[in-house]
Amino acid sequence: MTFIKSWEDFEKAAEKLYLANPMKVRYTMKYRHPDGALVLKFTDDAVCLQYRTEVQQDLKKIDRFMTNLMRHMVSSDK
Q1: Which of 44, 57, 68, 69 keeps 20 to 30 A from 22, CA to CA?
Q2: Rounded to the nearest 5°, which phi and psi values hold at 21?
Q3: Are 17 and 44 within 8 A, CB to CB?
Q4: Where is the SRP9 domain (predicted)?
Q5: Cβ atoms within 10 A of the Cβ of 78, count?
Q6: Reported pTM
Q7: Which among 19, 26, 18, 66 is positioned nearest to 43, based on CA atoms?
């Protein structure tokens, strides 16, 4: 499993993965204290996307992205 370097690339790929099959996609968010890094992982068992950051400014981007995904999850649009 490799990490995607750019946040923009990860965000686009993760949203595309979710929209392709919303019932199969899952994600995890893990903070690694020894490294001071936050690791995000999206998978549908066929494709695995990972992003890692140590930059605090990325937290706001991640929060915005997760809020957007939650809106997709609760919307009634199919």
Answers
A1: 57
A2: -155, 80
A3: yes
A4: 4-73
A5: 4
A6: 0.84
A7: 26
* pLDDT tens digits for range 24-49: 999 999 999 998 999 999 999 999 99
* Cβ 49 vs Cβ 42: under 8 Å: yes
Distance CA 75, CA 3 (A): 30
- Which residues does 15 contact at the CB level (< 8 Å), separation at least 6? 65, 68, 69, 72
> In whole angstroms, what is the distance from residue 75 CA to residue 54 CA?
32
The pair of structure tokens assigned to 77 is 């649009």
Query: Would you give the DSSP letter of residue 3?
Result: B
Per-domain residue ranges of the chain: 7-74
Contact 28, 40 (CB under 8 A): yes
**Helix intervals (H) in 1-78:** 7-20, 58-74
